[in-house]
Structure formats: structure tokens, C-alpha cells
């Protein structure tokens, strides 16, 4: 629920809108970063691991389909941000919910 505070990886997130906004911003940054920025990101394994843990917590705890799908998209972006095909799908706002990523509740 929107008024309930969730504690994802030690980060208190208060609303579905906030969670979705944070994940969408991360996804956008990943998709539009140059090679140098991405190299720095992937060399900082503790921060990368924390980001993945927070996204997995969102998938496990959140009931909101929008939050869960945004977390899935963010995880995919994080794992394949060098993939031109994925960048084009996201940039074109293509519905990627039926490309083999199980359906949420």
C-alpha cells in the first residue's frame, strides 16, 4: 500500500510511485550511459550487488504489478545494458512483458 513504508535493502521506500520512479531513473541512466560509466559501475561489485538485492526484494515483497515489472525491466537493463536490441525495445516503450519473463500477480 502507498502509505506503508517498505525497507528494501535498508532503503525505506514509501510509495509505489517512488519505487517506480527510482527504478525507471536507474533504468534510463543505464540505457543512456557511455562505456566509461558502465565500466565504473560494473567494477563496483558491492554497489552492483546491493542494487540487484534491492530489486529482488521489490520483486519478492511488492504486490504492485507496476513495481514488479519495473524491477524486472531494471534488472534486465542492468544485466544487458550493452545489448542494442534491448535498448531499442525500451527506448520505443515496447511491451516486453511477454518475452519469456514470467507474469506477475
Structural write-up:
The protein has 105 residues and is mainly alpha-helical. Helix content is 63%, strand content 6%. The protein has a two-stranded antiparallel sheet. Strand 1 and strand 2 (11-13) form a beta hairpin. Helix 1 (16-32) runs parallel beside helix 4 and helix 3 (45-61) packs antiparallel against helix 4. The two termini are 15 Å apart.
Describe the protein's topology.
Layout: E1 6-8, E2 11-13, H1 16-32, H2 35-43, H3 45-61, H4 65-79, H5 84-91
Antiparallel strand pairs: 1-2
Helix pairs in contact: 1-4, 3-4
Radius of gyration, Cα only, in angstroms? 14 Å
Shape: globular
Helix content: 55-70%
Mean pLDDT: 74
Span between N and C termini? 15 Å
In percent terms, what proportion of residues is strand? 5-15%
Q: State the order of secondary-structure elements, H for helix, E for strand.
A: EEHHHHH
**Would you count the extended β strands for me?**
2
Question: What structural class results from the helix and strand content?
Answer: mainly alpha
Strand order, biggest sheet?
1-2
* Main pleated sheet: 2 strands, antiparallel
Number of helices: 5
Spans of at least 5 consecutive residues with low confidence: 1-5, 98-105
Question: Which features does this protein show?
Answer:
two-stranded antiparallel sheet; mainly alpha; disordered C terminus; 105 residues
A few lines on this structure:
The protein has helices at 16-32, 35-43, 45-61, 65-79, 84-91, and strands spanning 6-8, 11-13. The chain is mainly alpha-helical and 105 residues long. Mean pLDDT is 74; it is low at 1-5 and 98-105.
Amino acid at each position: 500500500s502507498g502509505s506503508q513504508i517498505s525497507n528494501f535493502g535498508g532503503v525505506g521506500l514509501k510509495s509505489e510511485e517512488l519505487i517506480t520512479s527510482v527504478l525507471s531513473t536507474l533504468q534510463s541512466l543505464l540505457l543512456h550511459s557511455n562505456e566509461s560509466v558502465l565500466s565504473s559501475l560494473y567494477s563496483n561489485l558491492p554497489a552492483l550487488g546491493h542494487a540487484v538485492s534491492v530489486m529482488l526484494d521489490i520483486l519478492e515483497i511488492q504486490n504492485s504489478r507496476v513495481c514488479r515489472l519495473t524491477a524486472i525491466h531494471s534488472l534486465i537493463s542492468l544485466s544487458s545494458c550493452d545489448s542494442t536490441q534491448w535498448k531499442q525495445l525500451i527506448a520505443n516503450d515496447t511491451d516486453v512483458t511477454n518475452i519469456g519473463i514470467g507474469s506477475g500477480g
